[in-house]
Here is the input.
Amino acid sequence: MGKDIFSAFEEVISEKLALSKTSTENDGENEDKNEEEPVKNKGKMLVDATVAEQAVRYPADLSLLNEAREISEQLIDDLYKQSDYAGKPGTYRRIARKKHLNPAKKKKPGRKVLRRGLREQLQYLRRNLKYIKRLIGDVGSVPFPLPHRQQRQYRIIQHVYRRQNEMYRNREKRCDGRIVSIAQPHVRPTVRGKAGKKVEFGAELSVSMVDGLAFVDHIGWDAFNEGTDLQEQAESYKRRNGYYPAVVLADQICGSRENRKYLKEKGIRFGGKPMGDPRKRRKKTKNVFGN
Here is the structure.
């Protein structure tokens, strides 16, 4: 549906619930009296971040390169049918698959075995990409000799090769813009640090929950700091209800000095830990109570 349409659904539901809540509160009360009273901060807003996980295979670099190599071989086959070449370029696909299975079948392959497997798959993929580029240049009967689906695959496997080759050369395990799924190249890994699931794959959501309703305030495929959304979430709360919340409950990452200053100006209490050294706070508490 897209973010705009989904937000429109949220606003309609919120307006309907606000009207029903207002009519219930005003039932049997003097409307003039309510109009004279100033509107104060009311309610509680719970803010948190989560990940909408996607169904992707766990992104082992070796299997990702093997999949990219197989796609490149299919592209070569389809382009060769349209070309005037007397013989098909050699891709050594049987040997390449056998070399992929050697480390893949091992329960715990060593570092040297994995690096050798990555180097071999990178070499096969690099050669195949050169063949594809040459075939595309030689087939001049149409503007681009591949349909849209294969054009997309061609762009993705080139990106996969560049990023994997960069990590291999620099002996690194991460890089910016890393693709973890060829079928869903927009999916990015998000480090969550949870027990049993340190990394999740999917879109990160910044959510505010009010009266049992969850509003998606920010969605992004790249990891972001949800603490930067707190002020906009408070303003959205006011647009929906006509007043600011009395309390905001959020993780410690949202309790920056800038956010605390903003909440104090709006008369909103931050329901998180106070800033400063907790040992000093415990010492001050002991002195007050004489313990």
